[in-house]
Amino acid sequence: MARLPRIALPGIPQHVVQRGNNRLPCFLDDRDRLRYLQLLRDALHRSGCALHAYVLMDNHVHLLLTPPTVQATGRLMQRLGRHYVALFNGRHGRTGTLWEGRYKACLIDSEDHLLRCYRYIELNPVRAAITDDPARYRWSSCLANLGLRPHSALQPHPSFLALGSDTATRANAYRALLDAALTPEDLAAIRATLQQQRALGTSAFQAMVQAKTQRFAGVRPAHRPRKSAATGDK
Prior knowledge:
By secondary structure, the protein is of the alpha+beta class. Strand 2 and strand 3 form a beta hairpin. Helix 1 packs antiparallel against helix 2. It contains nine helices and five strands.
């Protein structure tokens, strides 16, 4: 059965995740991470995508970006993945796949949910108990978004720029958001939408996405196991 194309719209932010095959590491040291970021910068330039936030974990990557066309994210991920795998395999003397199937991506409502995705991505190392302060984690966009380190590959989204009229004001406002933990409901919504590759946002946003793509944009409820007539199991 043919796989349905991912839901995508030009100019609408996307939350993208790619995992190592079988949850194995896709970065073995800092040289791997630096090389990935170099390749990411090149892929952004060639695809025209705007990168807003990212984090490199040991066995997966999160990106928050806005594509200029429907195909741009796919082209970025294809180029990035192919070139990085070749370099990774050559450097570490291995063969075969590195990534776990296709990357996952969902659309993000920039009016209501985008800053939650910024936080979800950059707080990943905190949730993984690597650090208690996301600004101490080197391999994310957090330092740059807090105005503590320049990063030419990042392009702040207008929703992020609306946090303040200057860099210092935005940094203080964003720091306050990072210090306020995401609710369990926010975490569950982000994870479910990404897993099902739908649209994260208000019902009006999902209706707009559905009208433009002719695809269901909301999250479907998890399947409940059927009751067994023989055993009475629930």
